[in-house]
């Protein structure tokens, strides 16, 4: 088995004790759902990827990624759900 070298850490331990690895990140081009957005935000927060790497890898705008981070910090993971968007925008 060939393990690709990476510049940073390969895993991070999240506050709830789960381990997040580079393999847990969604593939580029996948449909965005709340759980995938949350994984990407957690990867940046815990140092698996830099903000610029995520923006380039997933072809996101700075504003879009910043809105994900802000939504999670302010209202939690549920704020990333499209069905809940209007509810959290009013707050």
UniProtKB/TrEMBL annotation:
MF (Gene Ontology): sequence-specific DNA binding
Pfam families: DUF1153
InterPro entries for this protein: DUF1153, Trp_repressor/repl_initiator, WH-like_DNA-bd_sf
Designated name of the protein: DUF1153 domain-containing protein
Organism: Paracoccus litorisediminis
């Amino acid at each position: 088995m060939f393990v690709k070298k990476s510049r940073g850490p390969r895993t991070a331990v999240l506050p709830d004790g789960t381990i997040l690895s580079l393999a847990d990140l969604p593939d580029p081009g996948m449909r965005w759902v709340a759980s995938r957005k949350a994984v990407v935000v957690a990867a940046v927060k815990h140092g698996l990827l830099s903000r610029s790497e995520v923006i380039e890898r997933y072809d996101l705008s700075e504003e879009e990624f910043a809105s994900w981070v802000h939504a999670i910090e302010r209202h939690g993971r549920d704020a990333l759900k499209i069905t809940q968007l209007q509810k959290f925008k009013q707050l």
